[in-house]
Predict the 3D structure of the following.
Amino acid sequence: MGESSLYAEILSAYSHGDTRLFRTNSALAWQGKVIEHTPTLLVLAHPRAIRFGAPGMSDLTGWSAGGIYTAIECKVGRRKPTDEQAAFIELVRRSGGRAGVARSVEEAGMIIRGDV
């Protein structure tokens, strides 16, 4: 199972009732006047960077019962969270939210319920 399949299973299992989770992307994109565009090349004049999300932001974010901010970083196999992802999880926890790494739907449920 890949991470995208894990996101989908967790969203299907837990994003209803008092819990709402959303797929969150963190990225850097560019905008500007397109000078040249081919299938493999994009040339911009006056480029400006646009950031989406926060560095290390978890894959799934939202709230669990009672309106508690919830962040779930999905990992499969032996993959580990980056330092930025671990710092984001710790920040959420210190701020009173629920956060952690889930490798299964069951682990996501534990995070949502506050069992970890």
Observations:
- The first helix runs from residue 3 to 14.
- The longest strand covers residues 27-38.
